[in-house]
Amino acid sequence: MSGIDDLPPLRQVIADHDLRAKKALGQNFLLDLNLTAKIARQAGDLTGLDVLEIGPGPGGLTRGLLAEGARRVLAIEKDARCLPALAEIAAAYPGRLEVIEGDALKVDPLAHLTPPIAICANLPYNVGTELLVRWLTPADWPPFWSSLTLMFQREVAERIVAQPGSKAYGRLALLVQWRAEARIVLSLPPEAFTPPPKVSSAVVRLTALPEPRFEADAQVLERVVAMAFNQRRKMLRAALRGLHPEIEEILVSVGIAPTERAERLSLEQFCALARAVKAA
Ligand code: SAM
Asked: How does DSSP classify residue 27?
């Protein structure tokens, strides 16, 4: 018995279906069902929620999400070898698990799920940041998801929650924190995975704010932040020179010293700057 359901232990699932991890697919599996249940619990109360999972692999986290009471789980997996193992889970939870074989970057979850939707995944590291950026930049806000509970390399997790003045602070922190609440809820050493990756990992939980924390045009804000951090060691008046011919005056008009550097500006200051640039 596995502990959270009557399905076989994951080591047996891996052996039965010959699921040797492939590096190219970012496969570092979680085989401890207590740990996958713990990650699923970080997603909050799942009762009555549809859940999107990217890269279920042999299904450890999928089992946790279903055992935690998710109404329905849509799991998108690129590796066809995992499908028989996932079919066993679907059979144990009739009508609650839909598995799509394919690339998560190409599937529209709304064709399969109904909001409110929680997204929970031990993501393949090679597509994790791309998916996060996509989920944070929809055409309209609030987005189709209410929360994201995602595994990242520890270094990426730290960039997501970083505060001004730290080395990790930059585009990702500002993009995330403008429209979401983000915190690291779990840290995992490499040995938690099979095979172990080279670096430590962390689970980040993000909740979508009903509206952005401060007013700003999304595109202008993104441009200002990108330019400011492209040359993060330069003073803002130099880094942002290409943005507007009167950038020094604009900076002063919102109370920012033109000699200041990007990594010391708060989100609120970046939003004020984006508004002033747009109005200029
Ligand atoms: N969730 C499983 C676990 O915790 O044991 C597996 C995690 S493993 C880090 C990442 C999974 O994502 C692998 O099963 C891999 O095949 C799958 N994957 C990689 N790229 C993908 C993509 N573009 N779309 C969907 N799944 C993908």
From this structure: -
Nearest protein CA to atom 19 of ligand 1, as residue: 25
Q: 124: left (phi > 0), else alpha (psi -120 to 50), else beta?
A: beta
The tokens 């791309």 sit on which residue?
A: 130
Q: Please tell me the CATH code under which domain 218-279 is placed.
A: 1.10.8.100
Q: Is 6 exposed, middle or buried (0-12, 13-18, 19+ CB in 10 A)?
A: exposed
Residues paired with 235 in a beta bridge: 261
Please, what are the averages of pLDDT over each run of 10 residues along the chain (280 residues)?
76 95 94 97 95 98 97 97 97 97 95 94 91 94 97 97 97 98 98 96 98 97 97 94 95 98 97 97
pTM over 0.90: yes
Q: Check: CB of residue 73 under 8 Å from CB of residue 94.
A: no
Q: Parse the chain into domains and list their residue ranges.
A: 10-208, 218-279
d(CA 152, CA 161): 12
Q: Which residue is closest in CA terms to ligand 1's atom 5?
A: 29
Cα torsion through 157, 163, 164, 167, rounded to 10:
-40
The helix/strand/coil state of 182 is strand
Q: What's the gap in Å between 4 CA and the centre of ligand 1?
A: 21
User: 10-208: CATH homologous superfamily?
Assistant: Vaccinia Virus protein VP39 (3.40.50.150)
Query: Per-residue pLDDT tens for 28-39?
Result: 999 999 999 999
Partners of 75 in beta bridges: 53, 99
